[in-house]
Input
Amino acid sequence: MKNFKDKVVYQIYPKSFKDTNHDGIGDLNGVTEKLDYLKKLGADMLWLTPFFISPQNDNGYDVENYYEIDPRYGTLEDLKRLIHEAKKRDIGLMFDMVFNHTSTHHEWFKKAMAGDPYYKDFYFFKKGKDHQPPTNWESKFGGNAWEYVEAFDEYYLHLFDVTQADLNWENPNVRKEMAKIVNYWLELGVTGFRFDVINLISKESFEDDFTGVGKRFYTDCKKVNDYLRELNEHSFGRCQHTMTVGEMSATTIENCLRYSKQENHELDMTFNFHHLKVDYLNKEKWTLMPFDFKELKQLFNDWQIGMQEGGGWNALFWCCHDQPRIVSRFGNDQEYHRESAKMLATSIHMMRGTPYIYQGEELGMTNAYFTDLKQYRDVESINHFHILKKQGLSDDEIYAILQSKSRDNARTPMQWDHTLNAGFSDQTPWIEVNSNYTKINAEEALKDPNSIFYHYTKLIQLRKQYSVIQEGEYIPLLEDSDQVFAYLRRLGSKMLLVLNNFYPQEAAIQLEDIADYELLLSNYPEQPLKQELILRPYESCVYYRE
Ligand code: GLC
Ligand code: CA
Output
């Protein structure tokens, strides 16, 4: 059995983490500079989002060369130093492998466009039907998913941006190239891999979708399992101490079980996003709706139990570079900033799975609340500004939506201290710093023993110390409560009791069998555990007994 159940991953968006060469863009040396901070937090593994050569149409998720570092982030020497310095601190590196598509600037695609049949077969080039694209599938970034190429009178598939061409995994030569890339980075000392939208790599059939946007023809198709097993066998599976996670788009428990069961030799764990759609009105992201707490609870319980019963493993997370800040989203970033940030952290860190912390989450960084389109950088947000405008929404309505949903909320520079640009850079940053940086920053957090930062360090320490957190069975509790998300973890006679009030109102709860519990962690001064308990606003407590 591989040992990753006591580990915690920290996600870094290098562009916004720390700039060391005075160009307003974060870089690899910036990550190296902050390793002691990350060690202090307790991170075991650092997931870096892509920093490979890329035209940056999708901030690096459009890779031009999987072997070369984009000079704006540094050099191979810088990377080797980072790997070395991290290893000295017992921290591993997890690279982001964007294998569903390449940039259209990639040399394979360029050769394909030049008519080389070997490389044309690396992608999906298909004939249209009656001057229409081969299928009616929609791109995830808007519009049809096929782009016409006049020279061939054919279309190529792009499930994302038109500059992100889907790779044809049916072709064994593509699969060989993918394994080669993973092996290259393994040899350089990389021990973790995150696979971007990896459940989309097999396209089962090219048919029009009359009930949806095409997803069912390319999501979680059976061959994904074969491809992952093969990749595992030919690359990371040969090494003992790797950790792998797959990002799964619009997936199901059943499929995530297949991907993450150790005996299947595919991946160690999966990300799913269902719990981050509970504030989408009619499943549409660019809307405003208070989050549906009951649905959130139900999803957590279903995924925890489903994955446990089938022997799979979840990645646990609230935040990433694609999601707004959780304290602004399901917490309260004003009056109960500290309490709610801690409560949200506890509620997922004590579950069964591997927790991921996104940079700044440990400080309670909030949404950006930009008020002008000029402040936005993300292509998806800017596109949607115009789409919503066309739909007739007023500017005020549109800004309210962007302030709550834009990916840029997560991408503002890391707030290190109260000096110029939050200590991120001495030059104008590529994206504006959040104006609350004078209060919310790492320097302040490190000085304050009661800070959100130290709450995260405690959560990480608890995971390492208590086997029940790593291995225990998950049992939902107080399922009917409209305010409290509670559960037990059980391993033999060891029990963990976790209570989280998700609201600024007090919550009265009834508990049974509370004898012998001791308090391990809370975001309030201790109150004795009673059968009839009143949880304070956003209160969260973790109790333990043996
Ligand atoms: C993943 C990434 C996202 C990117 C997309 C296409 O969802 O997290 O940032 O836009 O894949 O590669
Ligand atoms: Ca820089």
Notes: The chain has 17 helices and 22 strands. Residues 392 and 398 are 10 Å apart (CA to CA).
